[in-house]
Design goal:
- The structure is a single chain.
- The protein is mainly alpha-helical.
- Helices cover 59% and strands 0% of the residues.
- It is built from 34 helices and no strands.
- It has helices at residues 3-6, 9-23, 77-94, 99-107, 110-119, 126-136, 142-148, 153-156, 171-183, 187-196, 207-217, 222-231, 242-253, 258-264, 273-286, 290-299, 302-305, 310-321, 326-334, 341-357, 362-371, 373-378, 384-391, 395-404, 426-440, 448-456, 461-473, 478-487, 496-509, 516-519, 528-543, 553-557, 561-567, 575-587.
- Helix 2 (9-23) packs antiparallel against helix 11 (207-217) and helix 3 packs parallel to helix 6 (126-136).
- The protein starts with a helix and ends with a helix.
Length: 589
């Protein structure tokens, strides 16, 4: 009876791993049977990965000092065919490589072919010239070999053996290579496996075959394993396969077999099986039973496979952030629409960022998300700037339209024609209010100063008046505020919440009177982080006795960063260190 039929799956992997750990880097004591006409060797030589082959007595046509570039200049079809034929003849007839290997290497190594052509002088007779050249200039066969496996020169240059030129000198590599070929893995996919799991090519005879057979004993079909190994080469080494085994058992428990894997796995992707297990656990915590979970994955494989479940994690996290409960998310996924999950997520995320960009309140965004989740994931919206221009509206009006009827989003998807919206009357009302506000400040209508101020003061008249009144309530004289905002009109372009936060910090944290804004109104223009960083550094320098006390607020805040560092921070030997620590602490909030 077969040994694998006697052992449980976990025992099989343990046995293979133990056998591997004992034999991985031992020289074979018995001859290895090659899959082709290669000679066997008693003690195959192993190689490092940090140095290219160097032979003083042999001049390779692809000299070791060659700089590798991943682009090939155009070569005529006739020239390429002649060069490939000459290389095939050399590898098969002279070097005795199997015809299928020689053919694969000659036809799938364009960079190597180009380098050989650069060495040939007689361009009129390419084929015979290359044949003559190769007769006296043996090549490093590992270069076209690795390139034919799907690796670019920049990827395989560090993998070239240190002291070998001929493939037949490394029977261990070749035997494991043939195991993968005979298993059904495409030759141009094996390069990725060699790059990510080189240990798999150093196994003693039979070990790699046992590894692959162990997965089959679990009930996985060979075609599914081909895709799994090609996408996740680490499955072939060490204990990295345990999470994969658990994942397969979990899928099997919800009614998903290897045929599903065969259909949906992509050899070009990389899969994090541990993260995918975590995602299934999350769905179970939501309330999914085995049958529901299996049906969800069968209908929408992207939930599990897109970025190894990371996209689904991000989506769930965003929904939780916007106020949905786990139970509401569970119900949503039970009724997930007939759309590819990756596309749904990208649409949803774009809509969310769109609403942020048009400055919709986060509470309103949450309300729309909770009530129109499917709508947001189904609409591939135009960009916000483009839409605002085409509709000829401002952000505030666009927010109002969406809040009143989120279904309007369907009209603004990519590819749709969008024209200006009819005037709602709000624009005229806003203009009248703004005109009155500026007139009250002393601007004369129909003058250049008035037109300039109209552009500088943003928002409608009511909003500007509310912000003005807010500053008056804080104790500033109306006349002082008027003169201040004429000098720095951008002060009123901030919301009341932002103004309140900055003024509170000025009074309660820094200890400056509100009247400081009269002499330095631009204080309100700077970010809170900049002000906190400058003042924290100034106070530290003052405590060290290297900064003058009672410096004006404008002196500390308004100067450029380079000037502040040269003039103040560098006054103390530890100034630069303290500055960086404060900066990291304040800006990481």
């Amino acid at each position: 009876m077969n040994l694998f039929q006697k052992l449980r799956t976990e025992g099989v992997f343990k046995w293979v791993s133990l056998n591997l750990s004992e034999n991985l880097f031992k020289s074979s004591k018995t001859p290895l049977l090659g899959a082709g006409p290669f000679r066997t060797c008693q003690n195959p030589r192993f190689y490092g990965r940090n140095k290219r082959a160097q032979f003083e007595s042999l001049e390779s046509p692809v000299g070791t000092s060659t700089v590798y570039r991943d682009n090939v200049s155009p070569i005529s079809r006739k020239t390429r065919a002649q060069a490939q034929a000459a290389l095939l003849e050399y590898l098969h007839s002279t070097r005795s490589l199997q015809f299928i290997d020689a053919e694969n290497m000659s036809k799938n190594s364009p960079f190597f072919i180009k380098k050989i052509l650069e060495k040939v002088k007689n361009k009129a007779e390419i084929g015979s010239s290359i044949t003559r050249f190769l007769r006296y200039h043996p090549i490093n066969e590992f270069e076209p070999f690795f390139e034919s496996l799907g690796l670019k020169p920049s990827e395989f240059v560090s993998l070239l053996p240190r002291d070998l030129m001929f493939l037949s000198d490394d029977q261990v590599l070749l035997e494991n290579y043939y195991v993968l070929c005979n298993y059904g893995i495409a030759r141009n996919k094996i390069g990725k496996i060699y790059k990510e799991a080189p240990e798999a090519f150093r196994y003693d005879s039979g070990v790699l075959q046992l590894k692959l057979q162990a997965y089959i004993e679990m009930g996985l079909c060979q075609s599914a394993m081909i895709k799994a190994v090609a996408s996740s080469p680490y499955l072939l080494i060490g204990d990295a396969n345990r999470e994969f085994v658990k994942m397969m058992e979990r899928l099997k428990s919800v009614g998903i077999g290897s045929s599903w894997m065969e259909k949906h796995l992509s050899e070009g992707n990389h899969y994090d099986w541990s993260q995918m297990l975590d995602l299934l656990s999350l769905f179970s915590k939501m309330g999914f039973n085995g049958e529901q979970l299996g049906e969800l994955i069968r209908q929408h494989p992207g939930i599990l496979l897109e970025c190894s479940g990371n996209m689904a994690f991000s989506f769930v996290g965003l929904l939780l952030k916007l106020g949905l409960t786990l139970n509401e998310i569970y119900i949503f996924f039970l009724q997930f629409p007939s759309i590819e999950f990756g596309k749904f997520y990208r649409n949803f995320r774009h809509c969310y960022l769109f609403l942020i960009e048009i400055e919709m309140d986060i509470e309103e965004i949450g309300r729309i998300v909770r009530s129109h989740t499917v709508l947001l994931g189904s609409c591939a919206l135009k960009r916000a700037n483009s839409l605002l221009t085409n509709l000829s509206v401002g952000k505030k009006r666009l927010c109002s339209i969406i809040k009143d009827n989120p279904q309007e989003l369907k009209k603004w998807v990519l590819g749709s024609k969008v024209g200006p919206l009819p005037n709602s009357g709000e624009d005229l009302k806003s203009k009248i209010q703004k005109t009155k506000f500026l007139s009250d400040l002393g601007y004369v209508e129909n003058t250049k100063e008035f037109e300039k101020a109209f552009k500088l003061f943003r928002g409608n008249g009511m909003e500007l008046q509310e912000r003005f009144d807010f500053l008056v309530k804080y104790g500033l004289d109306r006349k002082d505020i008027t003169e201040t905002i004429k000098v720095a009109p951008h002060i009123l372009n901030q919301s009341i919440n932002v103004l309140e936060m900055k003024i509170n910090y000025l009074i309660h944290s820094l200890g400056y009177p509100i009247s400081s804004l009269v002499t330095f109104p631009s204080y309100l223009s700077y970010t809170s982080e900049r002000v906190e960083l400058r003042m924290s550094m100034y106070n530290w320098l003052k405590d060290q006795g290297v900064a003058e006390p009672n410096l004006a607020l404008s002196t500390i805040i308004a100067c450029g960063e380079d000037y502040f560092i040269d003039c103040y921070v560098n006054r103390h030997p530890k100034g630069a260190e303290i500055w960086q620590k404060l900066k990291q602490k304040i800006y990481s909030h």
